[in-house]
Amino acid sequence: MKIAYRHLAQHIKESPSIEDISNKLLQLGHEHEIDCDIFDMEFTPNRGDCLSVNGLLRELGVFFTIHPNQEIYTEKLNELQLDFENLSESTCPKISFLKLEIDQVPETYKNSLGDYFSDLGLNKNNFFTDVSNYLSYETGQPTHCYDASTMSGKLIFHEIEKNEVFETLLDKKITLTGKNSVFSLNDDVINLAGIVGGKSTSCSTNTKTVIVECAFFQPEAIIGKSVKYDIQSEASHKFERAVDPECHEKVLRRFINIVSKHANIKGVSLISYTYKDNPAHQVPINVKKINQIIGIDISEAEYINYLTKLGFVIDSSFIKIPAFRSDVRTQNDLAEEIARVIGYDNIPNADIRIPKSDKANYKDIENKLRYFLLDHGFYEVINSPFVSLSSDEAIKVDNPLDSNREFLRTNLTNSLVDNLLLNERRQKDSIKIFEISDIYSSNIAINKKRKLALIASGRVGLNYEDFSKKINMKYVSSLFKQILPEEVFDFQLLSRDLLDTKINNEIISLEVDIDKFSNKILAYEEVSSPPDNFNEYISVSDLPSSFKDISYSVKDFSKMKDLQDLLLNYQNDIVKDIFIFDYFKNEKTEEIKIGFRFVFQSKIATLTASEIDVVYNEIVNKTRDIGGISIPGM
Amino acid sequence: MPEHKDISPPKLIKDRGSLHPINHMKDSIMEMLTSFGFEIVDGPEIETEEFNFDMLNIKKSHPARQMHDTFYVENKSNLLRTHTSPVQIRGMLKKKPPLAFISGGKVYRKDDDATHLPMFHQVEGIYVDENVSFAQLKELIYKIIYSLFGNDVELRFRPSYFPFTEPSAEVDILSKEGKWLEILGCGLVNPVVLENCSIDSNKYSGLAFGLGIERIAMLKHGVTDIREFYKSNLDFLSQFK
Fold first, then answer.
1. Is residue A561 helix, strand or coil?
2. Is residue A351 part of a domain?
3. Which of A91, A284, A288, B50 could covalently link to A221 via disulfide, CB atoms 3.0 to 4.6 Å apart?
4. Quick one: pLDDT at residue B1?
5. A393 dihedral zone (left: phi>0; alpha: psi -120 to 50; beta)
6. Model confidence pLDDT, tens digit, residues A150-165
């Protein structure tokens, strides 16, 4: 909600700066941004009472002297004769109607009404609707204006449950479905209560006689409707968060006053219906409890002073909660009020000692497995549980994000196959990944299983010992034999027949319940350890990579170090990775053959062969200066 | 002629894998919290409305319960938990105070953009004992934030609203760029929640807090798009060794 700094400051005696007000609002818990002297406020959902100039002034009254300069009409009002029936009193326990006739529709707006439109850069609609909108801004109470000339017949407030087409005053046709609280006139819906009025009875720029409806609707009857019908309405935003049930007469008298500053009033009458009394909620004064909750030591006088400034009323040994603060009901609620006024950051910290738990980590086996896999080059992944494929036991999401995410997966392997294909498309030729997750399925009841799944494919590793070895069933099963020689695992050779790929490396997979692993794995001593620091991430290029190999013949072994130092530490923006993929020492010929792989990738554009050759040639030329080595074929 | 005939082969670099950065962050936070005295508890990701909402004082009319915010399953008989708080409810129903639990894991909300995903991770903690105060909560939160971001980080507490805590707060840290960034939510356990778990709220009070793991991991690693964490791209994952 946008509120102009000027509209607040003009009611505050101390003339605080915009920064002063901003700091106090933050202390009180009202987040906002400031743009061109306008506060763009974001209130927590329990503070509907703050959604107005007056609501914020009430809050700021803790720190400043507030002089609200808002005149109201004080003359006696005639009773409005209205054919109205409320058939849903529990939804609308209080409602008032004001009928107002003016001699002429004003062309320009004055005073606070004019400031509202000019300062906030708002578009005008029609006079009565504009006054209504302004009053909602000033007081927080939405009102709805009907053109009185369209309102002949019996007006009924009721809850309907039938499909009915309704045209809003914003020219939008919606079909009402399910339960809705509406106003009907002669059996036609003319207002979706608390959300938006109808076109048939809306005011126009010619309207001179208006019926203003001012109501309290239970938030439960309003919540969800604006989303359901895709109607962004300030009224619904306020009614959903509860408005002040006791403000009707004051708001409508303010309405009359504003109108009277712009036109001559020919007639005015008011009727109010109260179906249920709203006695003030009371909480006993208990400063000791408040001090204990917050961890402070304030006096009762300070406590009462703070609450009084926030609009709470002290009645003997009780705090009377004002009607606009429906969020305050308990000592903890009052403690929060006091803490806000003091300022959370001004409350001193207090020592805390939590008794130590000696319970073992129930995930020890799982963690051991993770580090075992890390040691053998496996990367841990986390996949979304939402899938499009159904199986007999898959749990269906009632309200999926889309049809591709309609079910919960019943296995981890399919996700890992997708991960494999993504990395193969990214020219990865050694892929080892695993995931540990809960898997849910439904038969008679919902079943939960914690599973480990892994997939391995391609080269065993990117080093000169493993580079030429391909991952196969024997390789993966031998890994597990090392740590769990007596346990049998159901490794699978997955078919590539249905996969969208031309790569033909074997895919070995395993999916197994975690509880199938015995405690024997706890004896495994891991090599890997979690990183000490949280590295700054370097953005990943989505462009294709390519590689070039350089093989050297080394006769002077003393040059091996120079060669490795030079190549393995070579840096260039397009060189992504360098490793030794081949190493062979020929004892007979006293010669070493060593091969280096250079992986090229740019973050800016797909690399051309000539761009790669420039770097490749530079690398080759640098190594030519090292004596005792040669590049076969060059 | 070569001078050295004996030479060691090049250092054999075995390719080690890496923990997923989100799991690593979650594990680090939970390890830190267990060192403070918290006990790890676990619970199901498919929950009932009773444990996910009712027991936590989230009213039937609360917007979070709407179909546009919460994933329901099996004809609305259950839901995907929207936070890890129901795990703590289950813990409080089993154990009497004093108690100190943490729970971490996947949670689900109906969002999908560069900063929100339908699945994300939380770690939440609760401590219930006699005379637990907001001032003690502040001390604990300072310890957590200092452990995560160093003792020099500037932080602030802002009043906020959660149905299950009262008073409630959100905590921000000041970034290097001078911008306040929201890090966690916390508060004193609403007495209604304690009573829902048959804990005498006149005798006991509690504190609770919750951290979004992705948010902290994004800040620590400088990741700007949350979706990067879940592409399973080895170029991305290999940076977190």
1. helix
2. no
3. A91
4. 43
5. alpha
6. 999 999 999 999 899 9
Q: What is the 3-state secondary structure (H, E, C) of B38-54?
A: CEECCCCCEECHHHHCH
A113/A257 same-domain check: yes
Confirm whether A490 is domain-assigned.
yes
pLDDT per position as a tens digit, A153-201: 999 999 999 899 999 999 999 999 999 999 999 989 999 999 999 999 9
- Alpha-carbon distance A165 to nearest alpha carbon in chain B (angstroms): 23
CATH number at residue A289: 3.30.56.10
Amino acid at A185: L
Mean pLDDT of all residues belonging to chain A: 93
**Helix axis angle, A287-294 relative to B134-149, nearest 10°?**
10
Residue to substitute from B72, B73, B143, interface A, most A β-carbons within 10 A: B73
* Cβ contact A200:A245 at 8 Å: no
A347 closest CB neighbour out of B62, B138, B238: B138
Split into its structural domains, chain A has a count of: 5
pLDDT grade, residue B4 (50/70/90)? low
- Other C-beta atoms closer than 10 Å to the C-beta of A42 total 10
Interface touch A377/B169, C-beta < 8 Å: no
Query: Using the beta-carbon criterion (under 8 Å), do A379 and B234 form an inter-chain contact?
Result: yes
Bridge-partner residues for A632, per DSSP? none
- Do A318 and A390 lie in one domain? The reply is no
Per-residue pLDDT, averaged over A57-80, amounts to 95
Residue A344 per-residue DSSP state = G
Query: For A87-149, where are the alpha helices, taking DSSP H only?
Result: 111-120, 127-139
Question: Are A102 and A142 in a shared domain?
Answer: yes
Return the pLDDT at A276: 86
Domains of chain B: 39-240 (3.30.930.10)
Q: Mind listing the pLDDT tens digit for each residue in A408-446?
A: 999 999 999 999 999 999 999 999 999 999 999 998 889
Checking if the pLDDT of A625 tops 90, the result is no
A345, A372, A397: which is the final residue of a domain?
A345
Shared domain for A419 and A300, answered yes or no, is no
Determine which of B4, B7, B8, B15 to mutate to test the interface with A (most A C-beta atoms within 10 Å): B15
Q: Examine the pLDDT at B66 and tell me if it is beyond 90.
A: no
Torsion of CA A215, A216, A219, A224, to 10 degrees: 0
Any domain includes A354? no
Q: Does residue A373 sit in the same domain as residue A307? A: no
Chain position carrying tokens 């391909």: A470
Boundary of a domain, candidates A246, A274, A302: A274
β-strands A430-442, A379-380 pairing: parallel
The residue behind tokens 């879940």 is B230
Give the model's confidence band at A400: pLDDT under 50 very low, under 70 low, under 90 confident, else very high.
very high
Residues A116 and A224 in one domain: yes
CB B2 to CB A448 under 8 A?
no
CA atoms of A32 and B215, how far apart (whole Å): 21
Neighbouring-strand partners of residue A319: A283, A314
Judged against a pLDDT cut of 60, whether residue A109 lies above it is answered with yes
Nearest alpha carbon to residue A376 among A452, A475, A473, A453: A475
DSSP-assigned beta bridge partners for residue A600: A546, A575
**Are A127 and A184 found together in one domain?**
yes
Residue A326 banded pLDDT, cuts 50, 70, 90: very high
Q: Are B141 and A407 in contact (CB under 8 A)?
A: no
User: Could you tell me the CATH number of the domain that includes residue A591?
Assistant: 3.30.70.380
Across the interface, whether the CB atoms of A422 and B74 are under 8 A apart is answered: no
A43 vs A191: CA distance, rounded Å: 27
Domain residues for the domain of A563 are 546-630
Would you say residue A617 lies in a domain? yes
Residues contacting B143, CB < 8 A, separation 6+: B36
If asked whether residues A95 and A243 sit together in one domain, one would say yes
User: How close, in Å, is residue B56 to chain A by CA atoms?
Assistant: 15
